[in-house]
Design goal:
Residues 229-446 form the Peptidase M1 membrane alanine aminopeptidase domain. It is built from 25 helices and 29 strands. By secondary structure, it is an alpha+beta fold. The chain folds into four domains: 14-199, Sandwich (Immunoglobulin-like); 201-450, Neutral Protease, domain 2, CATH 1.10.390.10; 453-549, Sandwich (Immunoglobulin-like); 576-857, Zincin-like fold.
Length: 861
């Protein structure tokens, strides 16, 4: 981007070996003091040392006995220590004393508070978030992932507080100042972004895994029982990873800590993993099935990082996807092993693969592997490409190589690079050695270029055959929602499935190929939706597949794949809305949650945005009611039936929510009745249905329902329930109530800063009118958002939540003009994606608006 100074990494003439660090946090005035002695290796003579430091006061600095002159470079977040004579080659001791503030911005060493559920008192805590580049806000350090060191940490804290760090407590002693000195064991060699501390009042539950690793889940005071589910997940997960990687967990303990305020969902600090409360705590009476599933996945994700990211760390942020893509894949493998009833791989195709395919079809996407210079560029790649597409290509690679070769390759990679750093190519090399397959040759096309292929396929009787075989003509091009001008090509592992269950594999390395398959009633590419591509079938092949869908002959993931691909093809102008809605109608017979959830999300993101622009919301709601009601009746209505499993619970909630927001009379009436009994304490709404009931009542209610919801939010101490309610408030269609929700965000009374963008997103997603009102509110309060979210990933997430679903060039121009006047470099790509989406939606509306109006005319009230 223009106007940037060239970023330079820290000088290579010195590197840290060990940090001996003592910190004294003060939770009364939210400050801290620090002292450290860093063992430094000098590799060539130098008169200066350059470290990372930001928002710190350094009082003294000396190397051995030589005093340093201290000078800061605030834009580069560095401090230069200059000496009168050259520092000798070899090891020496750098002694520093410094101080800083426990900030409120959820980065570095920061403060957070919660309310004790038993006493109602405010409890103050101090916790850390050092990734990606914020260790420098707590201690002067070499804050780059390749500059690993060991850490000896001591915390001086009040006697009634718990102090935690990466390693177990080694000793504690009283001090003359009345504080207790807590010394921790030395850490293994690790990157600065993995160092962590937590200080406060916590309860915990404890267990040991099968290898006698001590496990604890720390919770706010009085809520220890809410940590038991996560503890069970961790107890099952660590041995699974040890066996899968053939490498034991290398630390003697693992703590999982629920943090009231956290910018990310969780952070994989080695041995001290931090989580938002909603990502860790489960209440047996008040948590939904969806929450248990989410907690299992996030715990599995962060614990995978203990090996893939912590034991072996990316060399630089360019290889971030090695950490995040891999953990995002293996979390599903782990949860599937530990909780098979979740059918979690079917959830993967919606939560990860589909998200990646949508984002990566934009011109403003990026490759999985993005060259990163300055740390200020990092936040933009914590997105669905690094996480979800990264996970999806690893899933495809795992399927291609097979489990045994894949595991062997991972074990080689981890053993070869443990306690060190690695690049993508080193993983490919290990997998090639284990499998004998050309992994780098194939995978380079998936990680180094953006986008993915559209595989076109047609069938005809094979020549010189007795009529028992079909010849498939297969070709590839880049799939894009906009223009298809790219000449990119991929090396694509393709699998073909016939109605009789015959599977044929091929590796497409050219633009086109032909393959023969046995003649069958239908032929489908990409069974199980493992390949990272869209499929465009010939008209005859598509007709056969739709018939198979209606007869129930396709697996759940294959039905999902067909439905998802057709919505994408519609958005790209390769399918008409009439053809698309015929397929939607065929999905009425669907019985599984994940397919329905994706169908409803696609209808909202692809069609409802057009409907809002056309002013046909009432007709659209009638269409949604007739679409969803048969499936709702098949679920047995509102109440769980004997034998209902996890999937049925999720499906029932999704259908009630869709029908309730569409104004289905009997669903709205029942939701109101249940809400009233819930608020009075007469009969609690089952946790699985609360979100659906809250949204239904607020969307179809007024001030009384709004006040009742606020009262419920005030009374609960479960953050999951607070989240449910505050995100439901945005469903209100009353302009005055909508404005009250927006004001809640900036008032700071009820909505935590970490949750603010999601509350705004809930308002924005309710309707076009709500979206525009939310955008106006953000523009009017931009100074507040910049002050509160400065330097955080939440600013780029704010753009994603609010700006993505507009449908006119006028709205796009308004967004573009605003950010030209108010530049936001950390969200530059997000802004481009929002503008591209708005203009693409406008093009789809121009192309299909009349057809959509004609279709919805039959649903006039």
């Amino acid at each position: 981007m223009s106007g940037k100074t060239e970023f330079k990494k820290l000088p290579t003439h010195s590197r840290p070996i060990n940090y001996n660090l003592t910190l004294t946090p003060n939770l009364l005035d939210f400050t801290f003091k620090g002292q450290q002695v860093v063992t430094v290796e000098i590799t060539e003579p130098t008169n200066s040392l350059v470290l990372n430091s930001a928002e710190l006061e350094i009082e003294t600095a000396k190397f051995n006995d030589a005093e340093a002159e201290i000078s800061f470079n605030e834009p580069e977040e560095t401090v230069k220590l200059s000496f009168n004579s050259a520092l000798p080659v070899g090891r020496g001791q750098l002694s520093l004393s410094f101080s800083g503030a426990l900030n409120s911005r959820m980065k570095g060493f920061y403060r957070t508070v919660y309310t004790d559920s038993s006493t109602g008192a405010e409890v103050r805590c101090a916790v850390t978030q050092f990734a990606p580049t914020d260790a420098r806000r707590c201690l002067p350090c070499w804050d780059e992932p390749e500059l690993k060191a060991t850490f000896d940490v001591t915390m001086l804290v009040d006697t009634d507080l718990t102090a935690l760090s990466n390693m177990p407590e080694q000793s504690r002693s009283d001090t003359s100042s009345g504080l207790v000195s807590v010394k921790f064991q030395q850490s293994p060699i690790m990157s600065t972004y993995l160092l962590a501390f937590a200080v406060g009042r916590f309860d915990y539950v404890e267990d040991y895994d099968s290898d006698n690793v001590r496990l604890r889940v720390y919770t706010p005071s009085g809520r220890r029982e809410q940590g038991r589910f996560a503890l069970d997940v961790a107890r099952k997960t660590l041995p699974f990873y040890k066996d899968f990687f053939s490498v034991a967990y290398p630390l003697p303990k693992l703590d999982l800590v629920a943090v009231p305020d956290l910018a990310f969902g969780a952070m994989e600090n080695w041995g001290l993993v931090t989580y938002r409360e909603t990502a860790l705590l489960v209440d047996t009476d008040n948590s939904s099935a969806a929450t248990k599933e989410r907690v299992a996945l996030i715990v599995g994700h962060e614990l995978a990082h203990q090996w893939f990211g912590n034991l072996v760390t990316m060399q630089w942020w360019t290889h971030l996807w090695l950490n995040e893509g891999f953990a995002s894949w293996i979390q599903y493998l782990c949860v599937d092993q530990c909780y098979p009833e979740f059918d979690i791989w079917t959830r993967f195709v919606k939560s990860d693969l589909s998200r990646a395919l949508v984002l990566d079809a934009l011109d403003s996407s990026h490759p999985i592997e993005v060259p990163i210079g300055s740390p200020c560029e990092i936040d933009e790649i914590f997105d669905a490409i690094s996480y979800c597409k990264g996970a999806s290509v690893i899933r495809m690679l795992h399927e291609w190589l097979g489990q045994e070769a894949f595991r062997d390759g991972l074990s080689r990679y981890l053993d070869r690079h443990k306690y060190s750093n690695a690049q993508t190519e080193q993983l490919w090399k290990a997998l090639e050695e284990a499998s004998g397959q050309p992994v780098d040759f194939v995978m380079g096309t998936w990680t180094k270029q953006m986008g993915y292929p559209l595989i076109s396929v047609s069938a005809k009787p094979a020549d010189n055959d007795d009529g028992q075989q079909l010849e498939l003509s297969i070709s590839q091009e880049r799939f894009q929602f906009g223009s298809n001008s790219s000449l990119a090509a991929w090396r694509v592992p393709i699998q073909v499935l016939t109605a009789e269950g015959v599977k044929i594999n091929l590796l497409l390395t050219e633009k086109s190929a032909a393959v023969r398959v046995p003649k069958a009633a239908w032929v489908k590419l990409n069974p199980g939706f493992v390949g990272v591509y869209r499929t465009l079938y010939s008209e005859e092949m598509l007709s056969d597949l739709i018939a198979a869908l209606q007869r129930g002959q396709l697996s759940q993931r294959d039905r999902f794949n067909l439905e998802s691909d057709l919505f994408a093809l519609f958005s790209a102008g390769r399918l008409s809305i009439v053809q698309l809605l015929q397929v939607v109608d065929a999905c009425k017979v669907e019985q599984f949650y994940t397919v329905w959830a994706d169908l409803l999300d696609n209808l909202a993101a692809t069609i409802q945005v057009l409907v809002d622009q056309l002013g046909l919301s009432q007709q659209w709601r009638s269409f949604v009611c007739q679409l969803c009601e048969p499936a709702f009746q098949r679920c047995g209505g509102w109440d769980a039936q004997p034998g209902d499993g996890h999937d049925v619970a999720l499906l029932r909630a999704a259908l009630i929510r869709a029908l309730g927001l569409a104004g289905h009379p009997s669903v709205v009436a029942e939701a109101r009745a249940r809400f009233s009994r819930h608020c009075s304490g007469e009969c609690a709404i089952p946790a699985d249905l609360r979100d659906s009931v809250y949204r239904t009542v607020l969307a179809n209610g007024g001030g009384a329902e709004f006040e009742a919801a606020l009262d419920l939010m005030d009374k609960t101490d479960l953050q999951e329930e607070k989240d449910r309610i505050q995100r439901s408030l945005g469903s209100s269609r009353d302009p005055q109530l909508r404005q009250r929700v927006l004001q809640l965000v900036v008032s700071g009374d009820k909505v935590r800063l970490q949750d603010s963008i999601y509350v705004l997103g809930s308002v924005s997603s309710a309707s076009l009118e709500s979206r525009r009102a939310t955008w106006r509110f953000i523009k009017c309060n931009w100074a507040w958002f910049q002050e509160k979210l400065r330097g955080q990933i939440l600013l780029s997430r704010l753009v994603q939540q609010v700006c993505n679903n507009f449908c006119s060039s006028e709205d796009a121009e308004d967004i573009e003009t605003f950010f030209q006047a108010n530049p936001l470099p950390s969200a530059e790509r997000n802004i481009k994606q929002a503008l591209e989406n708005a203009r693409l939606n406008a093009r789809v509306l121009a192309r299909e608006g009349c057809n959509l109006e004609n279709f919805l005319a039959k649903f006039d009230a």
